[in-house]
Write a structure and sequence with these properties.
Residues 154-322 form the GGDEF domain. The termini are far apart. Helix 19 runs antiparallel to helix 20 (636-648). Helices cover 45% and strands 19% of the residues. By secondary structure, the chain is α+β, with helices and mostly antiparallel strands. The protein has a 6-stranded antiparallel sheet. The protein has a 5-stranded mixed sheet with strand order 6-7-5-8-9, with helices on both faces. It is flat, with a radius of gyration of 35 Å. The longest helix is centred in the first third of the chain and has 25 residues, at 175-199.
């Protein structure tokens, strides 16, 4: 069933009948049931009966008293229903002829836009389909119901497929048989697409193209995850490889459509066909119109991934995004020049300073260990995964790069790297290979030294939080990590991180726990009686002297800080959150002045929000406000700053709620009240605002006029609204002098609030 052809028929139907108040639906038969085109709902028994009966009518089916007619179109294997607003026509032949013409026009358009052998989208049609999809996703509404419901962004991917060893099939069995393989391959792709669409309901759209030869393209888009996309790619692959192609049943079906008697069908075991799949995701880089360069780019990336899938053994799916991380190979090792050439370059993201682990083809963990008992051979396991060495890139070109051996434990002259050896990218933040005590034969021994594993740290805090031994958490962070990475590459950054890790281990006792938080940070948890602030300060000073470009800073939170905050007016902070607090104290938005070691507290949290507000980083500011609130930070000024951030995002109602909490915590703060007044003004909560602001004295209002004129203006505008709406909360005496003062605020003389105040003054 060619759904693309039916969609063209639908377009022609709309053009044919749009002026006559006639609507239509198209139904097709698949998997032993009738389905409405691009719909997933189950058809009613009445509709099902009409569809079956329409096949028996030479012209059309019209049921007594019905407003609909049903036209069976056997040439395109579907049924078309026409819905009339008043009553169905008595003369059906006219509409039958019109539908025949519609089908003819759609079929002609289909022939132009589709490959004549496989009936899949031709090259230009596929590019046009891709262009429309890219335009749609680049202009997608980020607040769509689908995204909100499934918490997924719309994703788009292109698969490039190639029939493995197709030239050999043509050379061995002839081009006529090869054409039947192409047809069957296309049929299976469509079948897989239909099954995937049914499985994922309305969340996905799949289009299949056949540009030429044995190359095929698939476009997948929908509200699904990247993991689901990769699973879909493997479903297409398995649809081809899991059974002989063509099967006996498929050959029988092909024979019904054309005379295949001149072709000798190969034996069943000779019809095994596999496919390699290259996958590329579309990354939205900028707003604006989609260019042909972007279309070519995603197609080229899918084709590059396909090449890797074929050169890496065929019958597999390779994502372009994975080529850099684990699909590179060694082309040459010049022992005399001490240079290694590798087959990946700038085109797949290689950059100067990147590190790779090198594995031989035998000891990559992928090669099976086979035994032969004299009768049969069988695989009983895999050769182990053993790293040969590590290399660092120093020269990058589009399709090739050059590197040197950087493993400090290996003498360059003792290492020989075979052609075809496999590469695995060492990501930023990975330092296990740089630490002493590591063995290539026992890599799991350093499993704990990986990025982002906080479990051991938090378990320590949880275990000793209520014990007599006071605990602490400290985070060391390279604040200029990104600049350093861009200048020197991941190898240099990993080396610096490994040095910091070793130095930190040296100044803390063995019962302390050290872990890598992210690519720029290391965290230590331990007992406060083992914490020596002078040693930490000396470490920061030493590394900052030797690695000044990384700008090392640190944040700390311990039981000492809990007691300090408890004695203050701000409130208690929980030691259970000490790791998070230490991370915030080491952030970029803390006022450091002369110290590079900051202890977390309510004032630090306030400084962070104030910095983000001043930088207009409201999205991050709100995220940090909500996170810190959940951790127990609750000072009045902190909550007031949260209100400012929400106001900056035009959420005045929630901002008002926060300002009101801040006022309750500190009733003497005039600015919290005027901020509340502004939020209630902009969220049309006049009476709510006036009720609270009535507590302000005239003296406090004078202070507001001088120090917080915008808030003063907001209160005056609330009073103006109250007068206009004849609210019982209107204070005529207060409004009379405040309105005069507000109008004199030259900075706001064009503000909309001034106009409301003037309108209220003009009232009798």
């Amino acid at each position: 069933m060619k759904l693309e052809k039916l969609r063209l028929v639908r377009e022609e139907l709309q053009d044919e009948f749009y002026q006559e108040d006639i609507t239509s639906s198209i139904f097709y038969y698949f998997n032993k049931r009738w389905i409405e085109l691009d719909k997933t709902s189950t058809l009613s028994k009445t509709v099902h009966n009409n569809l079956e009966l329409s096949k028996l009518e030479p012209v059309a089916l019209r049921r007594k008293g019905s407003k609909n007619i049903w036209v069976s179109c056997s040439e395109i294997e579907c049924c078309i229903a026409l819905y009339f607003s008043n009553s169905a026509p008595k003369v059906l032949e006219v509409y039958r002829r019109r539908i025949n013409n519609v089908v003819k026009r759609a079929s002609n358009a289909y022939k132009v836009s589709h490959n004549q052998l496989t009936q899949l989208l031709a090259r230009d049609s596929f590019r046009e389909k891709l262009h429309k999809a890219l335009t749609s996703i680049s202009h997608a509404d980020l607040t769509s119901e689908e995204e909100q419901e499934g918490n997924l962004n719309k994703i788009l991917a292109v698969f490039a497929l190639d029939i493995d060893h197709f030239k050999q099939i043509n050379d061995t069995y002839g081009h006529l048989y090869g054409d039947q393989v192409l047809k069957t391959f296309a049929i299976r792709l469509e079948r897989a697409a239909d099954n995937i669409a049914l499985e994922l309901s309305d969340n996905i759209e799949i289009s299949i193209g056949h540009p030429s030869g044995e190359e095929f393209l698939i476009l997948v888009q929908g509200y699904i995850s990247k993991d689901t996309i990769i699973k879909i790619a493997n479903q297409f692959r398995l649809e081809i490889s899991d059974s002989p192609l063509p099967s006996d049943k498929e050959w029988e079906d092909l024979s019904k459509r054309e005379n295949l008697s001149p072709i000798i069908l190969p034996q069943l075991h000779e019809r095994n066909v596999t496919t390699s799949v290259g996958l590329a995701f579309y990354a939205l880089s900028q707003e604006g119109e989609i260019t042909q360069d972007e279309i070519t780019s995603i197609l080229d990336r899918a084709d590059t991934a396909l090449y890797r899938a074929k050169s890496g053994g065929r019958n597999q799916v390779i994502s372009f995004d994975d080529i850099l991380s684990n699909c590179g190979r060694v082309l040459e090792h010049d022992i005399a020049a001490r240079v290694i050439a590798i087959d990946i370059g700038k085109n797949v993201g290689v950059s100067i300073g990147q590190e790779f682990k090198v594995f031989s083809t035998s000891y990559s963990g992928k090669k099976g260990f086979m035994i032969n008992d004299g009768r049969t051979s069988r695989t009983i396991g895999n050769y182990p995964r053993i790293e040969i060495t590590t290399i660092t890139v120093f020269n990058v070109q589009p399709e090739v790069s050059f590197a040197y051996i950087s493993d400090i434990k290996e003498k360059e002259s003792s290492v020989t790297i075979e052609k075809g050896a496999l590469l695995e990218l060492i990501p930023t933040g990975s330092i296990a290979h740089l630490l002493t005590g590591r063995s290539k034969y026992f890599p799991d021994a350093m499993e704990h030294i990986k990025v982002g594993d906080l479990s051991a740290l938090q378990n320590f805090i949880d275990k000793y939080a209520t014990s007599k031994n006071s605990t602490f958490s400290i985070v060391f962070r390279f604040s200029a990590e990104q600049e350093y990475f861009k200048r020197y590459g991941s190898a240099a950054l990993n080396s610096a991180l490994a040095r910091l890790y070793r130095e930190v281990q040296a100044i803390f006792p063995v019962e302390s726990i050290v872990r890598i938080l992210d690519t720029s940070s290391i965290c230590v948890v331990g007992f406060e009686n083992n914490y020596k602030e002078n040693s930490v300060a000396d470490l920061i000073k030493e590394l900052d002297t030797q690695l000044p470009e990384l700008r090392l800073v640190a944040g700390i939170f311990g039981q000492t800080d809990v007691k300090r905050e408890e004695k203050s007016n701000y409130g208690k902070l929980d030691i259970m959150h000490s790791i998070d607090f230490a991370r915030y104290a080491a952030s970029d938005y803390v006022k450091r002045e002369n110290s590079k070691l900051i202890r977390f507290g309510h004032i630090v949290a306030q400084n962070i929000l104030r910095a983000l507000f001043d930088l207009k980083s409201t999205t991050q500011g709100i995220a940090d406000f909500e996170k810190l609130s959940s951790l127990g930070v609750s000072s009045a000024e902190f909550i007031n700053l949260g209100g400012l951030l929400y106001r900056a995002k035009n959420n005045s109602k929630h901002a008002a709620d926060l300002y009101e909490i801040a006022v309750k915590k500190n009733p003497a703060a005039i600015t919290y009240k005027t901020n509340f007044g502004l939020a209630t003004y902009f969220s049309s909560q006049t009476d709510r605002g006036l009720t609270l602001l009535a507590s302000l004295t005239n003296e406090e209002l004078q202070v507001a006029l001088e120090k917080y004129p915008y808030g003063f203006l907001g209160y005056t505008a609330l009073l103006a609204k109250a007068k206009i709406s004849e609210s019982t909360l209107f204070d005529a005496e207060r409004f009379s002098w405040m309105a005069v003062a507000a109008i004199k605020l030259e900075k706001y003389n064009r503000h909309g609030m001034i106009q409301i105040i003037q309108s209220a003054l003009a009232m009798q």
